[in-house]
């Protein structure tokens, strides 16, 4: 990345750090939502962008992480930072099981994507009937009230949650960069581009793909932990929905699949526009259900047609933020 790119990223980071000092409660909630989608988009990007595995059921890992951590907190008093390890383990086990079924039996491409959707739907139906997790009536985490900020239990002000999700985004960005430039990362890229050639030079396709699924599902589950304690309620129809899975993958598609900055940029494009659209609809007094989904669909079509590689590679090239197209992006 060029010096200009480093300065620009540092400036953006400084602005995000200072945002709670000037933003009102609504703007801060929008920024928190943006960062959440940037985080889970980065997690999904590890599978699809780095190793070429299309998952359309990532809501499964969000839901498992959310329900596992919330249940441990409500039923046993185990805080989210301890419960997140159980949440990540549960999501990783589910992801590896799906990957094992798919990779061992040669389920690839769109068929693997359908397999991920199927498991997310099974989880949605299952949690709808598990009363220990609240069932269809929802699972609720007690609100702390005016007890102040409690980072250990993720109880506190919107500013606390904002800085937590910002830290998670930065950590995911750093981890993704390290992974992408590691031996495993190069194996992922080889598997993504030419799996037969990669196997011919000694890359274990099964292990490389399972590793991508494990990392992606674990990171996504951590996003689920944050979601549970931020909203304090969980409903299977929302958490495991196909719509949520689509919302997770859109930032990476819009920003640039396989890039580091793409999922973050895509989240900052889509989520504010979606919120603006919702605000304008409410201001007019019309009830138009599904319009936001229509907007996302149109945005996706426009990006695929005019910027098939995503917005970030084009923007980085135009502004001279990278030394070569795609380098360190």
Overall pLDDT level: 91
Write the H/E string, N to C. Answer: HHHHHEHHHHEHHHHH
Most strands sheet: 2 strands, antiparallel
Helicity, in percent? over 70%
Query: Roughly how many Å is the radius of gyration?
Result: 20 Å
Uncertain segments: 325-329
Count of extended strands: 2
Strand order of the largest sheet: 1-2
- The number of helices is 14
The general outline is globular
Structural class: mainly alpha
Task: Measure the end-to-end span.
Answer: 8 Å
Beta strand %: under 5%
Characterization of the model:
This protein is an all-alpha fold and 329 residues long. 74% of the residues lie in helices and 1% in strands. It is built from 14 helices and two strands; from the N terminus they run αααααβααααβααααα. The chain has a two-stranded antiparallel sheet with strand order 1-2. Helix 3 runs antiparallel to helix 4 (80-104) and helix 3 (59-76) packs parallel to helix 5 (109-127). The protein starts with a helix and ends in a 10-residue tail after the last helix. Residues 325-329 have low confidence and may be disordered.
Detail the topology: elements first, then pairings.
Blueprint: H1 3-22, H2 25-51, H3 59-76, H4 80-104, H5 109-127, E1 139-140, H6 158-180, H7 183-193, H8 195-200, H9 205-231, E2 233-234, H10 236-239, H11 242-255, H12 262-284, H13 291-306, H14 311-319
Antiparallel strand pairs: 1-2
Helix pairs in contact: 2-6, 2-7, 2-9, 2-11, 2-12, 3-4, 3-5, 3-9, 4-9, 6-9, 7-9, 11-12, 11-13, 12-13
């Amino acid at each position: 990345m060029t010096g200009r790119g480093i300065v620009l990223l540092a400036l953006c980071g400084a602005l995000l750090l200072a945002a709670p000092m000037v933003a009102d409660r609504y703007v801060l909630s929008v920024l928190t939502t943006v960062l959440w989608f940037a985080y889970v988009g980065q997690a999904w990007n590890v599978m699809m962008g780095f190793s070429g595995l299309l998952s359309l059921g990532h809501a499964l890992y969000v839901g498992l992480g959310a329900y596992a951590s919330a249940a441990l907190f409500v039923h046993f008093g185990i805080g989210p930072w301890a419960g997140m390890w159980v949440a990540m383990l549960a999501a990783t086990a589910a992801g590896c099981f799906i990957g094992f079924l798919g990779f061992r039996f040669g389920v690839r491409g769109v068929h693997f994507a359908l397999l991920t959707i199927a498991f997310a739907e099974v989880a949605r139906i299952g949690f709808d009937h598990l009363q220990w997790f609240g069932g269809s009536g929802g699972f609720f985490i007690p609100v702390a009230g005016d007890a102040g900020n409690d980072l250990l239990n993720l109880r506190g002000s919107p500013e606390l949650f904002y800085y937590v999700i910002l830290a998670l985004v930065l950590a995911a960005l750093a981890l993704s960069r390290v992974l992408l430039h590691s031996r495993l990362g190069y194996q992922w890229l080889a598997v993504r581009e030419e799996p037969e050639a990669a196997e011919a030079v000694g890359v274990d396709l099964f292990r490389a793909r399972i590793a991508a699924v494990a990392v992606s599902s674990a990171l996504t589950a951590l996003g689920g932990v944050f979601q549970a304690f931020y909203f304090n309620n969980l409903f299977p129809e929302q958490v495991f929905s196909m719509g949520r899975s689509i919302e997770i993958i859109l930032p990476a598609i819009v920003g640039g699949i396989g890039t580091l900055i793409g999922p973050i940029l895509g989240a900052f494009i889509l989520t504010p526009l979606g919120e603006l659209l919702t605000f304008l609809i409410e201001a007019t007094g019309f009830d138009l259900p599904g319009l936001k989904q229509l907007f996302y669909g149109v945005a996706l079509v426009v990006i695929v047609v005019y910027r098939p590689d995503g917005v970030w590679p084009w923007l980085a090239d135009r502004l001279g933020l990278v030394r070569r197209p795609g380098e360190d992006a």
